[in-house]
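Internal ticket #5521
Category: modeling
Description: The requester needs a full-assembly model to guide mutagenesis choices. All entity lines are attached below as received. Residue total reported by intake: 1004.
Assigned to: D.W.
Attached entities:
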Amino acid sequence: MTTLNARASRRRRSPLGSRWTPYVFLLPAAAYIFVFQAIPLLQEVYLSFTRTNLLNPTRSEWIGFDNYTRVFASSDFQQTLGTTAVYVIACVVGAVGSGLVVALLLNGSFPGRGIARALVTVPWAAPGIATALIATWMLNAQYGIITRALRAIGVDVGESGILDNPDLALPAILLTTIWQLFPFVAVVLLSALQSVPTELVEAAEMDGANRLWVFRVVTWPVIRPTVGLIALLMTIWSLRRFELIWLMTRGGPLGTTRTLVIDLYSQAFDSKQLGAAAAIGMVGVVIAMIVVVGSRLVTRAAEKDTA
Amino acid sequence: MATHTFRRSRLGGIALLAVAGLTLSACSTGGSSDSAEGGEIEPATITFAASTFGDPGLGPRLQELVDEYNASQDIVTIEPAAVPFPTFGQTVLTQMGGGEGPDLVRFDMPEFTSAADAGLLEPLDDKIDADELGLQEGPDQYMFVNDERYGVIFDTSNYVMYYNTDLIPEPPTTFDEFMDVAKATTQGDVYGLAFRQTQAEENGVWQDIFNYVYGFGGEWSDGEELTLNNPKNVEGLEAYQSLYDANVIPKGADAATFRKMFAQNKVGMELNNGGYLVATRGTNPDLNFSVAPIPFPVRAQGAIMAPIVINANSEHKDAAMDFINWVLEAENQTSLQEALGASSVATKTTRSDEQLAETPFLPVYDELTNSSSPQIVVGFGPQTADIRKIVVTQVISALQGQQTMEEALDNAQDEAEQIVG
Amino acid sequence: MKRVRIGVVGRMIGVLIVLGIAVFPIYWMFTTALTSDADLFAPEPRWFPDFGQFYVFVDALAEGPTLTWLANSTIVAIGTTVFSIGLGIPLAYALSRFSFKGKVAVGLLLLMTQMLPEALMVVPLFSLYRRFELLDSLAGLILANTAFVLPIVALVLKGAIDGIPKELEEAGRVDGARPLAVLLRINVPIILPSIAAAAVIAFFHAWNEYVFAVTFIFNKSLQPASVGLAGFIGEQGTAIQTIMAVAFMFTLPAVAFYLFAQKYVVSGMTAGAVKG
């Protein structure tokens, strides 16, 4: 909290450093987000209380909470929520964990480091559609290289292959997602690792300190906020990931890969029910909000602990 | 009518051309162009969306036809719109619902009926004279929604049984033979049959099971009420399931894969429509294959019927209509027909000797026209997409052993009734 | 606890495994593009590309408007990057350095907007775009994509600015510099590595985006590569090799961009040291 004193002193130092200054910095982005995100979002909130057809989006019939009651009453939606939870948690844990390991690997010095750092971003640079296509092909039930390899070492993936197997489809999509995401985590953490005081690490290592200990005491505190931020973003991104799942399984088999967004898309564009789709979207937004607020509380508690 | 005035005006020649060039930029920035009835067609560049533009076999042929039209006159230019097949319906309908969209669209039946029902298509009653043009009645009857005409058949194509003549010298003529041949052909990495059976290809599964339902005497509705769990439907889909359980198909394979497999002699039979002919030849010109009617108890099968329509939002409806009129001219119908391979067009055209020599089995497709139905739920056209989703989800769950086919269709009936109200 | 020492060799082995996992699917994309149908559907996989099939790449470049697609994607991606960094820096600065009414709300809103899926926003944005005449233009795509990446760009940059000691800025202020000048002269150079990271995020997001691109662009010559790529998936047939070839060519420029940005990420190391 800035005290009155501090604020006053700032004003004295700089003519423009008034209490309006933050708003001046904020304004362009805020106006932008208001127009391109807030207005459409408010429209969606309204739509979620209406029956609205995709083909006639300007004609809406107010139906109160009907969309919400219908959505929550459906047993399919409960499955959707469960699948979403598993998918999101596994994505976050998998991507952050593997990304951190890769960032630490790449942070040291070794020959060819520049090339390695560039190559590792390849999965993330690959367009989502290209990833879905190559993953689908590699998992192809008859000719997929992964299917063939698994069969060759005696793993039974079932007649109809991995993506059509209700037990394996979600794990396959998860691994594809993690493959796509870990470079992002690695790149961001790598840049956070640059702030770790190298002298300290070197000094500690010179003293013969255990690497894990050095990591916990020196490195982790520096990168922890970044890890938190990334975990939060991974959560939110995973809640809204679409193309990959849609192209690979379209939510099947048996709804085992149907996440909130897949459900939403299919409501909006197959069933053409924008109202029902908006209601599903709002459930997602509320979940995201809970996650965001929850993570804030956790961070604050953690800060208190260390303080 | 518009064509004639337009032709005359073209004689006006160069002067008009110059004007055309000048006005082109003006009208493309969105000037209203409710053009004068009976007057000239306003020069325009209009867009035409068809999912077939992306097809490796058909796409270039369709493009040639459009080029031919563009070269035939200097006033209207048709450009293919950029809408990829995987999200074709969703994209075009979103654009049209939002007040935009391509001027001309080649739709599939479910999207066509939804769009017409929502008032997104230009009524064509006054612009099309079916008798004078000689439109084929069978498919043309489906161009009406709420008693109003909203489209003209662009291409239509009946479902037949494709079979590899090297693997299967004699085509089966009954379902039992079909099953036996499929089993006998399945050896090593060769499969007797292929069809779609995954959620990822919902639309394709719907197209495929349609033939089993109709081929066993079933139907999705009696025109008034849904009859999804009709015993005949159950019988047909149990037959479909028995093939799945017999392990005669490459399970989990999507159409892109198993069609390539068919072209590589790895799949013996496939039920598909006439559009497949061009694609298969394009993939492997040396493949020996033929077609026969689907050997199910009842001679009834699905057909792709694809109307060409004018977007009600279009600012260049007369220009769009000019293209439709041009396509419907006898000589252009013939060239469209030839471009499409085994599909049919709006009017009855004769197959040339040349074509018949190249593809002797072309008459097989044509003879099925009267027993073919579009893949919609009759009487529930606009809701077909919803019903499709429900049915396909339930049927796949039966294939996966979660329930019997009978239970699946009972559940589908219950769910669908709630939706259609 | 046992001492864990990873020598250079150990690290190299780890890196090689990671690189194998990262690059193999892309290698497989390339190999699939250069494999004939007969080999593709053979009982045994073909492990290496068949360069006799190289015409697939040539044809994809010559026949399809692949280069136009790539150019459009480049414009959209660079535009989005510039725009979101330009808007993101002041936003991040405000969130990091000032406390003001509604700050928590702004932060929450930023994260919430990240939740909104494109599929949900596409219909309201369509009508908005129609009113502003932004449909069928690359500028429209840049604006839409910026809205989606701006929050994360701002959050990444805020994290970086948080790490800059206030004393550095105080020094600037004593010189009588205005806040904007302080931001540009003192903060921006220090957070360059984070700007580079944020730029990479923005670039890749815009490079890959599909839902907006397919709905908002009608004109074929304005199509970005993500849409063009999907256009190869056909109703009756899909040329697996062509798709893989185009997908591969679509992946390369993004990697090249990263190589370009990486220089700054690395040079940021020195900037980071100043602070320590």
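Resolution: model delivered.
Comment from assignee: Chain C has a mean pLDDT of 84.
Ticket closed.
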